[in-house]
């Protein structure tokens, strides 16, 4: 039996959906669809009364998961979270701080005692037995019904040994624990859509791993750290970084060691700020595109290596979490025979491109500027390495050097070059993703959606056809301003005033620079002097003296324009033209050429 999903163009607000793309769902994945008719949310009802274990709850996605779970299923019995002490803070202090976070404001309002449901467990995923005490382990083994495994290192430059210990061995240890759980109904692992980024078309299956995990474990066990560092590029092969490499390994390991567990793997692409929940634009870290948006909004980032036409596969964090919770319910209730992989992506359903993203980000930050911007936001994308290097020198390094010089002269600590170097490091690591497109199939996501009833579809919405990208990016940028940089929207008029001040400084600077260059040029080149005298000695034309024949001769056009328009207007027009051609920064001259003495 084959079932076709309805045409997804219905109800979507984005006009660029793929035409008539019908997804074929394997019959064995389809149930009778009894949930379809119900008016109660099956997903939320499922979690009520259940005990859930979450790793990575202090992270970006983990926090949204905890919040949504507690808000949508207020009768959930308990939410165990595995937390490690960090940066001089005990596990209890960290959890107390986490619960104060803005992301929990909505659930705090709905259920003020939500924190009583959260049961923190001291754990360290890189340690044997996850460093969980025997007493805590006993509690988990007897109580937990669903596991969500979000913890990972997401750094692209993580040393291989640590990435393996956390992303692969940590997963193995958690699986071992899960296999002993007496009441476990589902185990959901968060992977990444880029785990198999060495392929262009990525199906919802587990691919052969880049290496045998056990062999790598043995290798890193006895090899010296520096040797591992040296051989890492060889081991990675085609994989661009240790993050995607270890994520691919952990998927394979799960398939190998899952035993009788009901497991699903969620593969989100680039997780961005929330679309709707708990607040539009909520974001709490600089990973993925967020740091780049802010650097562009601050006017520090001027050039980016990206392919305008490549798909920017972003997924809002609340969409990824809604899918994760729905997949948890489906895995536990429907118990599919095979491990299901859900590609949680947008590119095949509602594509969005890096070029569009750049435009939306720039226009949002021009309308809603960040406070104390370094320069007016004006970042451009190029796929040319040489052009990028040119703009890096002219627009990143030169202003940073000047600014740091100014800081030194005024007795302050220079910092701009450091920021620029860090930015270049991240851009180098990110460009692999911003210059290529991938095709992810999303049949399982569609299948899951078809199993949700009307209420579930509203409460756990992951229908990305409804995503309107320009609105989303605007809310993302404003969210970054509010939640990441803690800036008040009331400060926008002052921020706009600051941008006007920066623009005037730029005009003055460019004018001075142009005059200096022109003076040097005139002083050193006879030809430049001749041109200058020629232009200066041209007599103004009288009205009607320009014939049709003259119009074809460039010197008459120059003469005519100069005699009829003020010089500053002509220069401004030229500078705007140059700016449009991306040849030179804008030049706004407000003086008459005749005043300049050569
Ligand atoms: C116009 C737009 C066009 C867009 C044009 C294309 C973009 C193209 C994106 C592709 C995106 C692919 C995404 C793959 C899909 C996954 O699966 S994503 C998984 C997500 N993982 C990541 O994104 C990790 C990437 N980041 C890294 O690997 C590391 O952060 C880097 C880039 C190596 C930098 O390392 P680092 O120099 O050691 O800096 P790091 O320790 O990260 O940060 C130091 C401090 O600076 C802060 N910081 C970092 N960045 C910033 C910033 N920008 N501003 C202020 N503070 C910052 C940090 O929060 C941190 O603060 P503390 O925690 O110390 O208080
Ligand atoms: N963000 C994204 O764009 C994407 C993320 N993903 C995946 O989603 C998951 C969550 O990512 P995200 O929330 O962004 O990542 P974060 O870096 O925000 O969170 C990572 C979490 O893992 C925990 N953790 C790290 N090391 C350990 C350890 N040794 N022991 C116990 N816990 C540890 C962190 O705890 P602590 O606070 O103590 O550091 C934190 O809670 C990851 O599996 C990631 O691969 C997939 C695609 C894209």
TrEMBL record:
One of its GO terms (cellular component) is peroxisomal membrane. Its EC number is 1.2.1.84. The keyword RNA-binding does not apply. One of its GO terms (biological process) is lipid biosynthetic process. InterPro entries: FAR (IPR026055), FAR_C (IPR033640), FAR_NAD-bd (IPR013120), NAD(P)-bd_dom_sf (IPR036291). It comes from the Eukaryota. Residues 396-487 form the Fatty acyl-CoA reductase C-terminal domain. The chain crosses the membrane at residues 507-527, 557-580. It is a single-pass membrane protein. GO terms for molecular function: alcohol-forming long-chain fatty acyl-CoA reductase activity; alcohol-forming very long-chain fatty acyl-CoA reductase activity. It is an enzyme of class 1 (oxidoreductase). It catalyses: hexadecanoyl-CoA + 2 NADPH + 2 H(+) = hexadecan-1-ol + 2 NADP(+) + CoA; octadecanoyl-CoA + 2 NADPH + 2 H(+) = octadecan-1-ol + 2 NADP(+) + CoA; (9Z)-octadecenoyl-CoA + 2 NADPH + 2 H(+) = (9Z)-octadecen-1-ol + 2 NADP(+) + CoA; (9Z,12Z)-octadecadienoyl-CoA + 2 NADPH + 2 H(+) = (9Z,12Z)-octadecadien-1-ol + 2 NADP(+) + CoA. Keywords: Lipid biosynthesis, Lipid metabolism, Membrane, NADP, Oxidoreductase, Peroxisome, Transmembrane, Transmembrane helix. It is found in: Peroxisome membrane. Catalyzes the reduction of saturated and unsaturated C16 or C18 fatty acyl-CoA to fatty alcohols. It plays an essential role in the production of ether lipids/plasmalogens which synthesis requires fatty alcohols. In parallel, it is also required for wax monoesters production since fatty alcohols also constitute a substrate for their synthesis. Catalyzes the reduction of fatty acyl-CoA to fatty alcohols. Belongs to the fatty acyl-CoA reductase family. This is Fatty acyl-CoA reductase. It comes from Cyanistes caeruleus (Eurasian blue tit). The gene is LOC111923362.
């Amino acid at each position: 039996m084959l079932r076709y999903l309805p045409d997804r163009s219905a109800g979507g607000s984005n006009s660029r959906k793929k035409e008539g793309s019908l997804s074929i769902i394997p019959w064995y994945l389809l149930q009778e669809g009894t949930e379809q008719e119900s008016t109660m949310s099956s997903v939320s009802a499922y979690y009520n009364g259940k005990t859930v274990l979450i790793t990575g709850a202090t992270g970006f996605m983990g926090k949204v998961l905890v919040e949504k779970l507690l808000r949508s299923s207020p009768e959930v019995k308990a939410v165990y979270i595995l937390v490690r002490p960090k940066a001089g803070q005990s596990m209890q202090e960290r959890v107390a701080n986490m619960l104060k976070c803005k992301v929990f404001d909505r659930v705090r309002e709905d259920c003020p005692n939500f924190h009583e449901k959260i049961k923190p467990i001291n754990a360290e995923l890189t340690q044997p037995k996850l460093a969980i005490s025997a007493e805590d382990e006993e509690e988990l083994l007897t109580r937990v019904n669903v596991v969500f495994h979000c913890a990972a290192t997401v750094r692209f430059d993580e040393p291989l040994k640590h990435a393996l210990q956390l992303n692969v061995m940590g997963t193995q240890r958690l699986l071992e624990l899960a296999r002993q759980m007496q009441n476990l109904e589902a185990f959901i692992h968060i992977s990444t859509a880029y785990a198999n980024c060495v392929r262009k078309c990525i199906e919802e299956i587990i691919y052969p791993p880049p290496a045998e995990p056990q062999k790598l474990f043995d290798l890193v066990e006895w090899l010296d750290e520096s040797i591992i560092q040296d051989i890492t590029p060889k081991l990675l092969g085609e994989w661009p970084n240790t993050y995607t490499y270890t994520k691919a390994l952990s998927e394979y390991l799960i398939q190998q060691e899952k035993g009788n567990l009901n497991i699903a793997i969620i593969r989100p692409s680039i997780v961005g700020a929330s679309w709707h929940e708990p607040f539009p634009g909520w974001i709490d870290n600089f990973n993925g595109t967020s740091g780049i948006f802010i650097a562009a909004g601050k006017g520090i980032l001027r050039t980016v290596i990206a392919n305008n036409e490549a798909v920017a596969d972003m997924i809002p964090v609340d969409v990824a979490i809604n899918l994760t919770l729905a997949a948890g319910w489906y895995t536990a209730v429907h118990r599919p025979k095979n491990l299901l992989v859900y590609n949680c992506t947008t590119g095949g359903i509602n594509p969005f491109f890096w070029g569009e993203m750049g435009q939306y980000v720039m226009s949002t930050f021009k309308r809603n500027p960040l406070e104390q911007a370094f320069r007016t936001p004006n970042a451009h994308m190029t796929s040319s390495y040489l052009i990028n290097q040119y703009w890096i020198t002219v627009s990143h390094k030169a202003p940073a050097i000047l600014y740091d010089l100014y800081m030194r002269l005024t007795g302050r600590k220079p910092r701009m070059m450091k920021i620029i170097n860090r930015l270049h490091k991240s851009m180098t690591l990110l460009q692999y993703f911003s210059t290529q497109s991938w095709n992810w199939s999303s049949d399982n996501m569609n299948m899951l959606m078809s199993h949700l009833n009307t209420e579930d579809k509203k409460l756990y919405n992951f229908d990305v056809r409804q995503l309107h990208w320009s609105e989303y990016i605007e809310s993302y940028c404003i969210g970054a301003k509010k939640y990441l940089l803690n800036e008040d929207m009331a400060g926008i008029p002052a921020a706009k005033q600051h941008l006007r001040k920066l623009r005037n400084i730029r005009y003055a600077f460019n004018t001075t620079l142009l005059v200096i260059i022109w003076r040097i040029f005139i002083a050193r080149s006879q030809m430049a002097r001749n041109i200058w005298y020629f232009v200066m000695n041209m007599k103004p034309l009288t009205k009607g003296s320009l014939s049709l024949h003259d119009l074809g001769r460039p010197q008459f056009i120059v003469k005519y324009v100069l005699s009829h328009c003020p010089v500053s207007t002509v220069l401004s027009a030229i500078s705007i033209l140059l700016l449009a051609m991306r040849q030179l920064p804008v030049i706004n001259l407000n003086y008459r050429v005749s005043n300049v003495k050569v």
